[in-house]
Structure formats: C-alpha cells, structure tokens
Hints:
The chain has 248 residues and is of the alpha/beta class. The chain is globular and about 55 Å long. The protein has a single domain (5-203, 236-247), classed as TIM Barrel (Alpha-Beta Barrel). It has an eight-stranded parallel β-sheet. The chain contains eight helices and ten strands. The longest helix is centred in the N-terminal third of the chain and has 16 residues, at 71-86.
Amino acid sequence: MANILLEICCGSIDDAIQAEKGGADRVELCSALFLGGLTPSIGTIQEAKRRLKIPVMVMVRPRGGGFCYTEAEMATMERDVEAAIDSGADGIVFGILQADGKIDEKRTKRMRRLIGKRQAVVHRAFDVTPDPFKALEQLVDLGITRILTSGQRDSVQEGADLIAELIERAGKRIEILPGGGIRPFNVREVVDKTGCRQVHLTAWSTVQDSSTHARPEVTFGGALHPPEDLYEMTDAKLVREIATKLRG
C-alpha cells in the first residue's frame, strides 16, 4: 500500500502541528469541526504556514447548515479566500450549491478564479448533489483540483462503491479524496475497496484543560453543554499508526 497520501483534518494550530509530527502528508485546516468545519482564523493560517512544512489546505465555509449562500456570505467567502492566499495557503477547500442541491457553477467559477494557481478543493457538499456523475463533470470543467467525498453516504465504508466508480470516471482529470468515517481499523479496507491513492480523516484524542475547574457549574456552549475542561486534539501517535498502515 505504498504512496497513499494521508491528509488530516485539523481544527486548530496544535492539531496541524501534531498531524505533521505524526507523518501526515497534508492538512486541511478548519475551525468548528463539530459543524463539519468552518473557516479558520487568519492567525491560525499564518501560524500553520510558519510552523509546518507540509501543504496546508484552508477551509472557506462561513456557516454550518447547508451550502447555498446569500450574496453577503459569498462576498465574505471571497474575502476569506483572498486573505487565506495572502497568508500562504496552499489550497482552498469550499463548496457552493444551488437551492436544489446542484453545483452552483457561476459562483464556483468565481471562487476558482480567485484561487488562481493554488489547489481548489470541493468538500463534501458534493455528497448531497442529486447527480454525482453530472457534478463530477461540472467540477472537471471548472478546473477543480480535487473532490472530498464519502460516496454520498454517511461514511466512506458505506459509499465505497460509488467512490470507486468516481475514481474510475475521473481518471487523471480530477482527484477523488475519500473522507468521512475513516479510522485506523478500516483505512486499509477503504483503500482496497475504492482503489484510492489518498485518504482524509481525523485522528483525535481527548485533552484536558483544567483552567475551568474553579467554577465547574459555568458552561459556555449551547444546549448540548459540552464539558468545559475537555477538548479534542490531533494525536501524533494515532496519525503515525495510520501512516504506518498506509505505507506498510
């Protein structure tokens, strides 16, 4: 299983540092991974580019809850693309749909033009398009570098058959990056089933921050009330375990 590229999805600068330390080939840098990933801060992008040697793909997504954006949101995304590129981003990850779930070709073309020579990646918005093969051809025509997909299912394992077909149809015209539900125990199976040459996943462990312990009754989240003394961070050892599986 040689030459399988490992991309780690990261929600913070420390995630990205640990991903590289563990042997990742590339990172996707986001915020708010609980929402599927939103645009990270400019400071996070700049620090990632200052500290990492591997490529940094930057998520540009202004909110959760779908991918059909208002004109104000679109303008914000365009500014975020410009700022991310100015900060050294190696590529931009985005996805823009029409209200019916089809690829918004006009707006996607605008984003592709802004991204210029950097990599342009369409994220799992692709997974809710009504016709994946038509969407594939549209994105090829628009000059997109890569599509992140779980095969239009909740996990890559469930969508493996479609991913394999997308890879076959794509050929060398566009890259297909499986992502969604990939774990150390199933990563080899995913590669075998899909024939992919790259994978995208998180590799977390839980870290404790004791600074909230003096007032444990105070919470800062929404209705879920997550514990305020715990957060998740990429685990370099887990990344290394995955990388070993991919390269062994």
